[in-house]
Amino acid sequence: MSSHQHNQQHNHQHHHHGQAPAADLDWDALAVHLEQEGELRAGAIAEAGWWLQDLAGEGSVRRVLDVGSGPGVIAGLLAEVFSTAEVVAVDQSAALLERARTRSCGRLDIQQADLPAEFDKLGEADLIWSGNAIHHLGDQQAALTSLAGVLRPGGLLAVAERGLPLRYLPRDFGLGRPGFQARLDAAHEDGFSAMRAELPDTTEEIEDWPAMLTRAGLTPTGTRTFLVDHPAPLSRPAREHLHVQLTRLHEQLAETLDAQDRATLEALLAEDAPTGILNRPDAFYLSAMTVHTARKG
Fold it and tell me: In this structure, are residues 86 and 64 in contact, taking their beta carbons and an 8 Å threshold?
């Protein structure tokens, strides 16, 4: 991806769409935050990995690509599942790839690539994982078709897109008007649409992922959704992760919220107050990741 597209990619993956220009943000400096989110989602990702191994057939996967890998948390989990395969973390950011290399103790290979321009440099693979990356390329169908072209015969493409948005508090948590998170979701969706409209070569697409995979020349092999569930009381690292996410939301969405919702968001950010996300006993972490798969004939 280009630098701008890559910035936008991590913006969405971590629920931070909004009005702040992505170019003004140092996403490499957020590597720790990206890793924390990957670790919170590790159980769901590992479960998805074992499902992919069942689909692929044990021992059939020799080379795995994680396209849009960031600091390599998912690639590392895939390397644990596909323990005899070469696993390659692919990303635009050299700093994030170096983080991936360091955290994997050499278990991962890394490949820097500017997508979609360098799809042809990825090399063949038996399994390609792409998590929340395709929707940051203007022509999503062309991106899927390019990835399908890299698959070996019988290989699998796994695309993790959408699912369910993160929930972390009850509908009515005693601040402001109930339904606060649903209104944040609406602002986020507007930001997401604006982001897609600004992408190079953007193409409107009905986001029926199995149908898109079929148009890419693949045969769909199933869609599954995996739950990310950390009930209250949350650990301190999970709370700190939410605090960073809410800080980003305040920076990027505050101007689009009404005064009451803005005040609620600021109360959640108060570090020493009992209303703050760092201290609330009712905070949890719940979302769902949907993975669409298809095979090359």
Answer: yes
Least confident of 87-91, 179-183, 220-224, 254-258: 254-258
CATH, residue 147: 3.40.50.150
- 21, pLDDT greater than 80: no
Sign of CA pseudo-dihedral 34, 51, 125, 209: negative
Query: Residue 278 and residue 268: Cα distance in Å, rounded?
Result: 8
The residue range of the domain holding 28 is 3-168+203-231+286-296
- In this structure, is residue 186 part of a structural domain? no
What is the C-alpha to C-alpha distance for residues 106 and 104, in angstroms, rounded to an integer? 5
Predicted TM-score (pTM) of this structure:
0.90
Counted domains in the chain: 1
**pLDDT over threshold 90, residue 225:** yes
**Identity of the residue numbered 273:** A
Domain membership of residue 23 (yes or no) is: yes
